Amino acid sequence: MSKYYKMKRNTSQLLIPIEKETQSLESYDIYPAFPLKDGIIEAGYESLAKVISKEKVVILDGYIGVDWDEVSSTLKNLIESMGFKIKMVNVNNFLKEESEIQKMVLPFLRDSDSIFGYRTTLTLCDYFDQSKIDGIKISQDYDITIIYGTGASQTKIKGHLVYFDLPKNELQFRMRSSSISNLGITIWNTPKQMYKQFYFVDWIVLNREKKRLLPKMDIIVDQQRPGNPTWTTGSAVRGSLSQMSTHYFRVRPWFEPGVWGGQWMKERFTGLNPDVPNYAWSFEMIVPENGLLLENNDKLLEVSFDMLMFQERDNVLGKAAQRFQDEFPIRFDFLDTFDGGNLSVQCHPKPDYIKKEFGENFTQDETYYIMDASEDADVYLGFQDNIDPKEFRQALEHSFETKEVLDVEKYIQKLPAKKHDLFLIPHGTVHCSGINNMVLEISATPYIFTFKMYDWQRMDLDGKPRPLNIEHAFKNLNFDRKGNRVKETLVSKPYVESSGPDWKKIHLPTHPDHFYDIYRYEFEGEITINTNDQCHILMLVEGGSIELIPNDYPSQTFQYAETFAVPAAANKYRLINKMEGMAKVIVSFVKDEAC
């Protein structure tokens, strides 16, 4: 088991256990789970084999990254040991030639030296040779025919559909170890280029297929634990998603070290691997990356967040569903620079640029909410009043070519950062967090479109230079965000919108370019909040713990720094402060005028 584990994953992060250990009631939960509705979570291939052995035709479909060698060989051996005669059909045999697939995806990968591509218009059927698929026949000479592999449902043969899912973090850990490759490709590329093809091609193609298949899935399997999957019925998962969409949900966060990473999370979040130099990020709620954990009899099963959006987007997003469709619009993530380093000097694309160049439907507008900060903490934001764009670009290019240190403050303002400050970073704004900040990044969902201009002359954790994107940046930088205008327009000015004897509702206005708004509720006892047909994303940013009571559903307790959401369909909910002192809760949602 340990040999297999090391071979399949290249990461310092721990593999999720099958059974959740007893969690301290006063600590951040790295494995938050929603109770499975009307079903049982099973563990292991043996129980799965017993169920599918009762079927005449079985379709084993699933996501990219699934270990189909393990799945097919293990199930074949188990079912044959029961005395059945099996025909195994590998759907990979029906793919188009690899050279043809490479040619097909190339237009969406653009520049090979860049991580940026263009969202594909391909569908899964484009990968298969239809003449080969048409030749598949179900032979009566076998007790069971099993068609397996990513895209098995493209055969159009009716059978018991078993879908194998894989969380995006585990997929990337396998990618880094060269254990998997891109869809229809057998040649391993560099991790960055493989990720690019996943993001712009494979995930889009396979998400469309996952959405199509979700209502038809008889069994859903979580294949992230080598040799020991967990599984349950499709109806149980769909029922749980339905219940989630009217009450609450919290995704499973995942954590990554980085060259600028800090020690704040490492010191405070129990259950993380301590044998890492730092933690730079926590993906608190980033829909394309995070998963949802379901729990039953202490067993855990993870499915992708996409499934919730595919099935329940109207309940989840309410009035915002018309604009954003299956895309969850807001993300929460942590950027930890405590005892770490500065982030890169960067900006993000304009809406028309990200649409034209990368095919995205909305852009990467951000804010920095300061969860915690040392007395010397700063944020770099906006330009100095005397900025000369031509001189700035020449200085960046000179620094890149000569490796000389750039005098950043000659060009960019450095503002002091205090706990509960909110810095506004609409598209085109030059910015980065300085050292000794714990940043809650509240942003629009796109998350890879960071145009780095300067990175303090350091290497990445792999010992290689971090790529810069000066050309992209200068097509998007807003040089009017300078001088006094920075403090006037890019630093939120909170005000009390309403209050009572022991509570305040404080508005933290965002920039007009932001489609989302931010409030902070401060209360000693309890408050009631209406969703107003919008999904609310929340976090306790000060205090010990709070209790959420959504509708008539059993209450749920959330700890300091945990991100959770209340769907639009919940209509209203109560928050109860479970500790002494003042609880402070951030709430973000789509502005009505942005729907």
Write the layout of secondary structure elements.
Blueprint: H1 2-8, E1 33-35, E2 42-43, H2 45-52, E3 57-62, H3 68-81, E4 86-90, H4 98-105, H5 130-134, E5 144-148, E6 160-165, H6 168-176, H7 191-213, E7 219-222, E8 230-233, H8 234-244, E9 254-256, H9 264-268, E10 281-285, E11 291-296, E12 299-304, H10 305-317, H11 321-324, E13 330-336, E14 345-347, H12 351-358, E15 366-373, E16 378-383, H13 389-402, E17 412-416, E18 422-425, E19 431-433, E20 437-444, E21 451-454, H14 470-474, H15 484-489, E22 495-500, E23 503-507, E24 516-523, E25 526-530, E26 536-542, E27 545-550, E28 556-559, E29 563-566, E30 572-577, E31 583-590
Parallel strand pairs: 1-11, 3-5, 3-6, 4-5, 6-7
Antiparallel strand pairs: 2-8, 7-8, 9-10, 10-13, 11-12, 13-20, 14-21, 15-18, 15-20, 16-17, 16-19, 22-23, 23-24, 24-31, 25-30, 26-29, 26-31, 27-28, 27-30
Helix pairs in contact: 2-3, 8-10
Tags for this model:
zinc; RmlC-like_jellyroll; single chain; 595 residues; 15 helices; 31 strands; metal-binding; isomerase activity; 6-stranded antiparallel sheet; 7-stranded mixed sheet; alpha+beta; isomerase
